[in-house]
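Please, structure for the following, as tokens.
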Amino acid sequence: MNLLVVVSLLMVAAAGTAVVLTRNPSRQAVQMAVFGLCLTVLFVVLQAPDVALSQLAVGTAVVPLMVMLTVQKTRGRP
């Protein structure tokens, strides 16, 4: 197997583990963005640029932003 693929897979595994082990929802949203970025790198390495662009838009930007907005909205309630 290619060394670049192995390194990318290890990055994805480490970032996914960091997301799961993070307790604070705000920090977890940031970790999700990093995880999405690692997945984007993996997809580029695997020569899937269309999937990488979708992951970059959705997994790195939109989903963490929606999680942050939801956390902020629910923390404002008593």
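Residues 12 and 39 are 6 Å apart (CA to CA). The chain has a mean pLDDT of 92.
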